[in-house]
Amino acid sequence: MGRPFLDYLDDSGEIYECRRCSACLTSIKLLVSKAFRGATGTAYLFKHVINVYLDKQDVRDMTTGRHMVRDVYCTNCNEKVGWFYDMAYKKDQEYKEGNYILEKALIKERKSFSDGAALRLSTSSSSSTDNDKDDITV
Ligand SMILES: [Zn+2]
């Protein structure tokens, strides 16, 4: 019952879900960086995300330069959850290509499936001051 057409991550660590519909999106093992910034605030970079679809390509000027990106939407509820890097125009930003950004305000963290599905509020003081990775979409 519920979400039979969705994929699930077989993971014992923390997972990230769509805040609106709780579809499973990705896991902490796929997390690359928490030092990003989106329209809603803090954003995370992930190597891979499931249960999402991509919008058409769009060239955007961000704080770290020009990128070709696509908006990322939850397959289940069609809510925008972040964006995907198709291409970076600057050499030193190429590590982001093929990776996904999920905005923290649009997702939620869950400890694990074996944890009684208890929602966990993020209490960790993520005091990242690493600002040179920030990306801002307009
Ligand atoms: Zn959703």
The name of the CATH topology is: Metal Binding Protein, Guanine Nucleotide Exchange Factor, Chain A
Q: What is the molecular shape?
A: globular
* Rg for CA atoms: 15 Å
How many domains? The number is 1
The number of helical runs is 0
Query: From the structure provided, what is the oligomeric state, counting identical versus distinct chains?
Result: single chain
Do you know the CATH architecture? Answer: Beta Complex
Overall pLDDT confidence: 83
Keywords:
Yippee; binds zinc ion; 138 residues; Yippee/Mis18/Cereblon; mainly beta; 10 strands; Metal Binding Protein, Guanine Nucleotide Exchange Factor, Chain A; Yippee_fam
Q: Topology, please?
A:
Layout: E1 15-18, E2 24-27, E3 31-38, E4 41-46, E5 52-54, E6 58-62, E7 65-74, E8 80-88, E9 100-103, E10 107-110
Antiparallel strand pairs: 1-2, 1-10, 3-4, 4-9, 5-7, 6-7, 7-8, 8-9
This protein binds zinc ion.
Characterize this entry briefly.
Helices cover about 0% and strands about 40% of the residues.
Could you characterize what this model shows?
- This protein is mostly beta strands and 138 residues long.
- It has a single domain, classed as Metal Binding Protein, Guanine Nucleotide Exchange Factor, Chain A, CATH 2.170.150.
- Helix content is 0%, strand content 41%.
- It has no helices and ten strands.
- It has strands at 15-18, 24-27, 31-38, 41-46, 52-54, 58-62, 65-74, 80-88, 100-103, 107-110.
- The chain is globular, with a radius of gyration of 15 Å.
- The N and C termini lie far apart (38 Å).
- Keywords: Metal-binding, Zinc.
